[in-house]
Amino acid sequence: MMITLLMPFFALATAATSVDAAAPFLPKHKTKSLAKTRALELRGGAGPIDAETAAKVVGGLAIGTGSVFTVASKFCNKSYGVDGELSPTDAIMTINHNLSIFSAGLVMYSLLFRNDISWNLAMALGNLPWSFRALGDLLNESSKTTGPSNIGSSLIFLFASAAAYGGLTAADWAGSAFKAASLFALTPGLPCLFAPAEASKLWEMKGATEMTNGMITGVGVTLTGFGAFMAALAWGDDVITAVGKKAIVDIL
Description:
This protein is mainly alpha-helical. The chain is built from 11 helices and no strands. It has helices at about 1-15, 30-45, 50-70, 75-80, 90-110, 120-140, 150-170, 175-195, 195-200, 210-235, 240-250.
């Protein structure tokens, strides 16, 4: 499984964890300065790799593997050790699993590698993939074939789109939308992780196979990590701290 392959890097990123919080609505240059301060503080006793480098490694892996595996289904299946074609439902679970990795990677890339992307825009970009995903499920009437239900897709679209729009327009209520979207990601993520069969019924998934519950658990792992990462940012952590907290969630 890709989670196993990435485990050393998740562990590496744990060195980036800090208990201090930074205000995400500060101007970009100040947020960057706070992030670098965290790295300098940790560099003295955290090992040979400083926190900023560790976070960039994780960010690069997230956007790289997330984007490739989301669009290259056959390559993804081979990397997961899956022989043959997946059922439509299991294929959807694989895409959703990778979409959370890609979404987190977009935010990490924006805040760690770019100086021209604001915090609000980065948070918007992190919510856009799930917004488009839910819209696609609604337009394709996925509720009739594989799931999730129209109610489930509508809720995903509502929370993700509100956060994306708030970030893109730098609305006064954007911070509240980011918090709501992150909590909503955690809400289905945790049941998928710990009770996949019940989560499948809750979201009215159809066409389950012997692999489906395992696939749903995989979605739970990455969705919970994504929700925790976005929540950390929404409640004031700088990106390096948020990456560290995501790493802790990913290796639980």
